[in-house]
Write a structure and sequence with these properties.
Layout lengths: L1 H4 L21 H48 L3 H16 L8 E5 L2 E5 L1 H47 L4 H27 L1
Antiparallel strand pairs: 1-2
Helix pairs in contact: 2-3, 3-4
Length: about 190
């Protein structure tokens, strides 16, 4: 009985329900799929643009806040570090520029696209490294000078606040007593006359 069901000699004409594979979409279905795909891609692009804008705003606020904090806490010494932070965070925010840089091998030669953007990022990075090197040197020198000044002031305050020792107290008492006795004696002589 199974052999009869699965007999390969049967054709579609002999079967009660012919087997037909439906692999193609109708024209209406194809246009509906294309329209759906188009709207979904537009929604994704809008959300991606919104996220990029929010990210750029966040990096801008962060770089401004960090630069402001560096200038307020370090004065003019923090100015170079503030410039570095702004350039570096700007490069981080514009990191998608690397996606536009293409080097292709076409027609027996290399074709480069978007190299201006790459040069701009590289220039900003090199500038920030040069400024950073001098800024870190200045910052280290500022820190060292501050420590020396703090140590000198601490020593001065400690010397000023030191209470006199017992030997110094007796000297002060003896000198003060001598001065008081001299003034009393001078006043007694003046009154006697």
């Amino acid at each position: 009985m199974l052999e009869e069901i699965f007999d390969s000699s049967e054709t579609d004409e002999n079967q009660e329900y012919p087997i037909a594979t439906d692999t193609e979409f109708t024209i209406d279905e194809i246009s509906a799929i294309k329209e759906f795909k188009k709207t979904q891609l537009e929604r994704i692009a809008k959300k991606r643009n919104t996220l990029e804008i929010i990210e750029r705003i966040a990096w801008s606020v962060s770089s401004y806040s960090l630069a402001r904090w560096l200038v307020l806490t370090s004065g003019s010494m923090g100015l170079n570090l503030a410039i570095i932070s702004i350039i570096t965070m700007n490069n981080i925010a514009n990191r998608r520029l690397f996606d536009d840089v293409n080097i292709d091998y076409e027609d027996g030669g290399l074709k480069m696209r978007g190299m201006g953007k790459l040069v701009r990022i590289g220039g900003g990075l090199i500038t920030s490294l040069i400024i950073g090197w001098s800024a870190l040197g200045d910052f280290y020198d500022f820190k060292r000078n501050s420590e020396i000044t703090y140590d000198n002031l601490t020593k001065m305050v400690e010397d000023f606040n030191n209470l006199p020792s017992d030997e110094d107290r007796w000297k002060v008492i003896a000198v003060g007593g001598g001065i008081a006795f001299g003034i009393y004696g001078a006043a007694w002589l003046i009154n006697k006359k």
